Description:
homodimer, 104 residues, 5 helices, binds FE2/S2 (inorganic) cluster
Amino acid sequence: SGLEDTVKKTIVDNPVVVYSKTWCSYSSEVKSLFKRLGAETLVIELDQLGSQGAQLQKTLESLTGQHTVPNVFIGGKHIGGCTDTVKLYQKGELESLLSQAGAT
Amino acid sequence: SGLEDTVKKTIVDNPVVVYSKTWCSYSSEVKSLFKRLGAETLVIELDQLGSQGAQLQKTLESLTGQHTVPNVFIGGKHIGGCTDTVKLYQKGELESLLSQAGAT
Lengths: 104, 104
Ligand SMILES: N[C@@H](CCC(=O)N[C@@H](CS)C(=O)NCC(=O)O)C(=O)O
Ligand SMILES: N[C@@H](CCC(=O)N[C@@H](CS)C(=O)NCC(=O)O)C(=O)O
Ligand code: FES
């Protein structure tokens, strides 16, 4: 579909993409982690897009199997949510993923 | 108002009260902390109450100044949100608050 192509293009064109909701603390946590690491990040706030936001969330679910926010991509690859991203950071694996994707 | 009296009675009648939203991870975190500590907890899911939920959230805001979830009370006292509760736990102060309130 059109939205699937949009998402596929967005995650390839940007080193880090976070699909988020402005009022969600888990989304804020992952956004501030990337900020602290100096990673070039595209943030898409699903609750700021009207009905497109809900459609985009459904598209993300069909592409990744994940209906929750935050939904994180690095270098075109689906990473998962907040806990997944933080776990990679704690294992020391996030920084090399970011540099390989050209985000840092 | 009627709702203010309801909240005041609820927080006095129950040792621990958590106003929560079912799909919010910060709410889940604080609920599972109290479960792990074996604290007798009343959980009120604001998103399961229809229009009452939004009214209740407004009432909590006027009583506590806090419009966010989770909204935590122990022994009738307003504690705050998830980060406030976790900080008390990390400082070793949460357990004595719970036992003083008769939750454990
Ligand atoms: N472990 C996941 C949890 C994700 C999660 O449950 N997100 C919530 C908001 S914090 C959500 O999208 N809830 C909507 C739903 O469950 O439908 C993560 O770390 O991202
Ligand atoms: N630091 C607070 C954060 C609370 C917070 O921002 N909660 C969010 C959901 S995770 C909320 O209620 N957002 C609604 C809003 O901001 O209007 C806590 O630990 O509880
Ligand atoms: S909505 Fe509460 S942590 Fe996401």
